[in-house]
Amino acid sequence: MSKSEITIIDYGLGNLLSVARGLEHVGAKVKFSSDPRIISQASKLVLPGVGAFPKAMQALSKLDLIKVLQDLKTSTKPLLAICLGMQLLLDESDEFELTSGLGLIPGRVIQVPRKSIIGAPQKIPHIGWSALNSSNNSTWRDTILENNKVGDAVYFVHSFMAQPSNTNDLLATVSYGGREVPAVIYKNNIYGCQFHPEKSGKVGLQILDKFKNL
């Protein structure tokens, strides 16, 4: 199986075509699948997502994809989860109702605060371009951000955010309302981007290219 072959998981809530175009632009061979057998045999996976956490978990459950994805915890297969997909990696979310996630990275999903750190109202959802910061002075070497630099701007659209239990699982953040909001989380072979790399121009393409070459 070619290193550049990437399977995008189609569970009805992803921005599939724009993600595929971004991956194809950097030379990846892309296919879509909702078949647990095909997904379990794929060499690399992308889990996109747009919408609500409970609906996404219901969709994955109906397609019998939850165990397939949870098995990645003991695998070396690279997974890139985008936007809502990133949030699904965590243990639970309180969006609408408390809902269990995939549990691939310890932590929970909470609403982006409606007020800044000084108490001023701030726009929700967080929409637009924000600059990446290094988390805990972490090195980006040998990660999907290896070809990027602090200050690179990426495109966000989200009302909820990840809250990893272990700060070692936090690779990059962005500043919003005076707070550091998780932008990239990771654990071993599993990565999550809160932003949309496929909508983030050259910076996002560098991230997709690095993922393709992991």
In short:
Helices cover 22% and strands 30% of the residues. By secondary structure, it is of the alpha/beta class. The chain has one domain (5-212): 3-Layer(aba) Sandwich (Rossmann fold), CATH 3.40.50.880.
Report on the structure:
The protein has a single domain, classed as Class I glutamine amidotransferase (GATase) domain (Rossmann fold), CATH 3.40.50. It is α/β, with parallel strands linked by helices and 214 residues long. 22% of the residues lie in helices and 30% in strands. The longest helix is centred in the last third of the chain and has 12 residues, at 201-212. It has helices spanning 16-25, 36-41, 53-62, 66-70, 84-88, 201-212, and strands at residues 5-9, 29-33, 45-47, 79-82, 92-93, 99-100, 107-111, 126-131, 133-134, 153-158, 160-164, 170-176, 179-187, 190-193.
CATH class: Alpha Beta
Structural class: alpha/beta
* Number of domain modules: 1
CATH topology name: Rossmann fold
Q: Give the strand line-up of the largest sheet.
A: 2-1-3-4-14-13-12-9
Task: Name the CATH superfamily classification.
Answer: Class I glutamine amidotransferase (GATase) domain
How much strand? 25-35%
- Please identify, by name, the CATH architecture: 3-Layer(aba) Sandwich
* Uncertain residue segments: none
Terminal Cα span? 14 Å
Mean pLDDT: 95
State the order of secondary-structure elements, H for helix, E for strand: EHEHEHHEHEEEEEEEEEEH
Overall outline: globular
